[in-house]
Amino acid sequence: MTTKGTTGRVVRIDDETWADYGQLCEEKGIARAADMRMHVVREVAAWRKANGIETPKKRVVRVPRKKPAADSD
User: Which DSSP state fits 30?
Assistant: First the structure.
């Protein structure tokens, strides 16, 4: 299952390590997927910095908000 339109990835981890990782993340108060994403982002940022690679700009999508309805009292 993926969120926000991201592509799912398959990661193979033995059952014992996965269970312990789940306990570790629970104690940290974070989901395993979020913890893995943060780790990957940190590693890639460090790699880019070490190799002089500029971080791509994030694409911002602005969604117009509806104005609240005026009270008709």
Answer: S
Number of H helices, E strands in the chain: 2, 0
Query: Cα–Cα distances in Å, from 9 out to 12, 15, 26, 33, 36?
Result: 10, 18, 22, 11, 11
DSSP letter, residue 29: T
* Tens-level pLDDT at each residue, the chain (73 residues): 566 778 888 999 999 999 999 999 999 999 999 999 999 999 999 999 999 999 888 888 888 888 887 776 5
Q: Is the pTM of this model over 0.70?
A: no
